[in-house]
Fold these 2 entries.
Entry 1:
Amino acid sequence: MSRVTIADVAIAAGVSKTAVSFAFNNPENLGQATLERVLRVARDLGYAPHPAARALSMRRSGTMGVLIPQRLSTVFANPFLSELIQGLGEQCEEHDLTLLLVPPVDGSLESAISQASVDGFISLGLGPDDKALAVLDRNGIPTVLVDSDGSPEHPAVNVDDKGGAEEAARHLLELGHTQLAIIVLPPTRSELETTPTAVRRMEGYEVAIAGAGAPAPECVTAGISVEAGARAFQQLREGARRATAVLAMSDMTAIGVMSAARASGLRVPDDLSVVGFDDLPMAAWTNPPLTTV
Amino acid sequence: MSRVTIADVAIAAGVSKTAVSFAFNNPENLGQATLERVLRVARDLGYAPHPAARALSMRRSGTMGVLIPQRLSTVFANPFLSELIQGLGEQCEEHDLTLLLVPPVDGSLESAISQASVDGFISLGLGPDDKALAVLDRNGIPTVLVDSDGSPEHPAVNVDDKGGAEEAARHLLELGHTQLAIIVLPPTRSELETTPTAVRRMEGYEVAIAGAGAPAPECVTAGISVEAGARAFQQLREGARRATAVLAMSDMTAIGVMSAARASGLRVPDDLSVVGFDDLPMAAWTNPPLTTV
DNA sequence: GATCGGCCCTAAACCGCTTTACTAAAGCGG
DNA sequence: CCGCTTTAGTAAAGCGGTTTAGGGCCGATC
C-alpha cells in the first residue's frame, strides 16, 4: 500500500541498498548486468526516491524559494510579480529546479522561512535590516534580494525606482502640467509603513516636482488593481485641488484611473494625463496605450 | 557556520534531543522550567528544525503541489490559471500549507512528481488515463483532479466545458449569425493532441451549430494570449470564408481578436461578434466589455 | 606461489528530526 | 515506610536515502 523504498528494490533485485543508490546516482560503480537488473526491478516496482530523504542526506532539495512579503492571494493579482515569477520559473526550468512560493505564515516571514525546504531564496521587497534576513543568514541559506534597498551582505537586483519616478514626473511637467497627483503603493506587511519601493519612487517624483518649482502634489494611496485605481480617481475628484495629471506607482492602478476617468467623461490624455510604472505588457493594450516607466 | 541542529540545542540546554523536540511539539511533556530554558536556548542559538528532516520523520511536508501540464513560464501568462492558483493559495494560507508549483521536468511530469516533496497534488488538465496519475497512485499521493475528464478513482472538480460552449455558440446563433469561426486552445504537453478541455468545448460548439443547421465553422488554433488572438484574427481575415462571429476558447484570445478587429477598422460587435470563455475579471474592462462564459 | 591492484559490491555510519518504550524520581494514600 | 501511580526526562529505533570504508575475488606481476 505504502511507498516503495530503496530497501524494497534492493531485496527484490537481490542487492544492497547501496547498489540501488549507485544505479541511480553513480552507475559507473556497478557492473553492466547488475545495473540493468536493478534499474529494471526499480521500474517494475515503480520506485521513486523519497524527496525528503534525498534532501536530508544530500543537503540539497532542488528547490528555489521565492520569499514573498505579502499574502499569496495578492501575488497573482499583481501582474508585475507574476512577470517576475514567470522569469524565475524559466530559469528554474533550465536548471531543473522547482519553485516554491513562500508567503508569510500567520503573518510571519521568519517562521515561513524555516518551514521551507529550499536551497536558496529570492526575496522580494525585503529591507536590508529585515529580521527575516537575519534568520536566513543564521541558517546559512543563500539569498538574493530583489526590489530591496540593497545590502552589503547580499547580492541584490533592483529597479531604479527613484530615477524612473523622476523621469515620469519630469515627463508630465514638461508637458506643461503643474498640479500633479500621486497614487502611492499600498503597504504590504504591516498596515502602517509604506514599502521601501514606494518611498524610493516618491523621492523621485518629489525631486522632479521640486526641480520644476511646481506645487506640492496631492497624494492618495491605492492597492495594485484596476478597481483600486478607479477608487483612487474618485477620491481625487472629490478633493479640492484639481490635478491635471496623475502619477501612479503601478500600471494596474494607472489603468484603473484611466478607465474611471473616461467613464466619467474625461478625455485621456486631453483632460487628464496618466503615467504608470512597471511597463506591463498589458499597458500596451489599453486605449490609448498607457504611458509608463 | 553551518546550521544549528537539535543536538546543538540539546547540549547547550543540558537536555536530550527528545526534550528539545518536545519543547516544540509536545510542550505538555516537559516541566515548566525545562520548557522555558530549552525554548530560550533555542531562540538564542537561532535554531529552526530542518524541514527535510522533519518531513522525513513526520511523513508529511506541509506542502501542497499543483501539477501543471505546461511550462512554468506560460502559467503566469494565463490569467485563468493565475486565478485558479490564487484560489488555491488562499486555501493553503488558511491551513498553513505552502504551495509548490510542479511543471514538467524535461518534458516529463512523472519525474517531476517524484522529485516533489508534497503531501498531495492538485492536478490540472490531466486525463484520467494519464501515466502521471498512475505514478501518483503507486506512490500513494492523494490527488484531486481539476479540469480533467473525471475519473472514478479520484475526486475531481471540473468546468462544464461542453455546456458552456454550447451556450456560447447558441447565443451567437440566436443573434442571427450563421458563419462562425472557432479559435481552439493550443496543445500543452505534446505538440500533437489537443487538450481534453479543448475537445469538450469543441463538442459543445458543434452540438449548438449542428442543432441550428448552420454551416461548419472555420477553426484556427491559437495560444492563450492577446497577441495570439490578434494573429488568429489575421489568419481568419485571410481565409476564404468571412465569419461574422468568433467563438474563442479563452478570454485572452478573445480580447486579442477584439482589439485586432477594431484596429483593422471593424466595429465590435456590429461587424464582428466575439465570445470568450473563462470569465476573467479582465474581460469586464475591455471596451466594449467582452461577452464570455 | 605469494603479493598486488582493480573491479564490484556491501556493511554501517550518517543526515536531523520524531516517537516509542522505558526509567528514575517524586507524590501519595494507607 | 511501602507499593502505587504520575511526572519528567532519556536512550534508541526509526524515517529513506547517500556515502565512506572496506571486503571478496579476479588476473597480472615479480
Note: Residues 201 and 212 of chain A are 17 Å apart (CA to CA).
Entry 2:
Amino acid sequence: MKVSREQMAENRNRILDVASRLFRDKGFDAVSVAEVMKAAGLTHGGFYGHFSSKDDLIANTLAHVLAADAGGGGDFRAYLDAYLSPRHRDNAAGGCPTAGLVADIRYQTPAARSAMTEGLRSQIDRIGKAIPEVNAVDRRRAAVGSWAAMVGAVILARAIDDPTLSDEVLEQTRAWVDAGISQVSAS
Amino acid sequence: MKVSREQMAENRNRILDVASRLFRDKGFDAVSVAEVMKAAGLTHGGFYGHFSSKDDLIANTLAHVLAADAGGGGDFRAYLDAYLSPRHRDNAAGGCPTAGLVADIRYQTPAARSAMTEGLRSQIDRIGKAIPEVNAVDRRRAAVGSWAAMVGAVILARAIDDPTLSDEVLEQTRAWVDAGISQVSAS
DNA sequence: ACGTAAATATGATCGTCATCATGTAAAAGT
DNA sequence: ACTTTTACATGATGACGATCATATTTACGT
C-alpha cells in the first residue's frame, strides 16, 4: 500500500537509523537487506523503492550517520574519557561509526569511501579546534595522532578476549593521549 | 590422490600462507574456501581433510600468521617508520596481520579471538621492551598507546580515499608517536 | 609386492542472500 | 469522485559458497 510523502520520508529515515545500528553492530556483510527492512518495520520488497542496491544503502547510511555524529566538538578531555570507556567499547551499535566501520570501508564502493573520508576530515578538524595546543602545527599533529590512537584503541579493545587486557588498552591509551596533549600544550 | 606426509604438511602450510594473504587483503568474509584452495594449488574438496570448517581455518591462520609476525622487536623508530609508511598501507596482503584483521575479529569464533588476544599481548610486550623509556610504568603506557595509534593510523589511512589526507594521517601519527616517545623518555 | 588407509579431486546439496516481478491499496492530482 | 501514480507487500529467481558424498590414486606398513 502507498503511504504519504512524509510517511515515506520517515520510513527512509528509520531505515537509515536501524541500518546504521545494525552495520555498526555486525558489520556490513553480516547484515542482510531483509534484516534491515524488518528492523525498520517493513518487508524486503519495498527496499528498492528507497535505494538502488545494498551498496547504495551503505553509502547513504554512512553519510547519514557521519553527519549526525559530530562528537569531539566541546571539551576534548571529556570526549576522550567517554570514547575510551568500557561503556563505549561495549556499545558498538550505538557508538562511534568510525570505530565501528572504518576498517570495513576498504572493501566498499567509491561512494562509501568518499563519505567516510569526508567524515574523517571533519572529525580531525573538529578535534583540532577542541584541543588546547596554541601552535597550529602542533594542534594538527595532536589531532591526527590522538584520533588514530582513540580509534585504534577501541578497535583493539573490542577484539581482545581478555577483559583485563581490554580495559588496560583503553585506560593506558587514554592516559597516553592525555599526556601527549598536556605535554605539547606545555611546550 | 594421496600424497606423502611431508607433502601434506607442505600443503597445509601453503594453505595457511595463502589464506593469511587473502584474508589480510580482502577480509575473512570475502574469501571463499575454494579461493584459498585454488590459490594453494589445490581444489576445494581436499579442504576438509585439513580443517574442520572455515572458522577453523581462520583460527589456525591467525595463530600461524601472528606467530610468524614478530615485528617491533629491534629498533622501535625504524619499525615505526616502516609501519606508518605508504608502502605498508598499500600492502595489506603482506602487511601487519593486526592492522589487516583486528577489526574483523569481533565477529569471529572464541578460538580466533583468543589467538588474536595472545598476538596482541606479545606484540605490546615486545614494543615495551624496544622502547627507550626507563620507568616501567611509562614504558607500558607508551607501548600500549603507540601500538593503538599505529594500528589506528594504518586502518584510517587505508580507508581514506584522498591520497593527500591518507599520507598525512600516516606522517602526522608517526611524528606524534615519535614525539610522545621522546618526551616521556626525557621526563 | 600387496592391501589398506589416507589425501585430493569431482560432483552434489542446501541455505542464504541480493535483486527482480507482480499485485494491491491508498495518496495525490485533476 | 476518478484516475493515476506509487509505496509497499508477497512471491519468484539466480548466484554464490560452505559443506558433504563419492571416486581415484598413491603412500605406507606389512
Note: The radius of gyration of chain B is 18 Å.
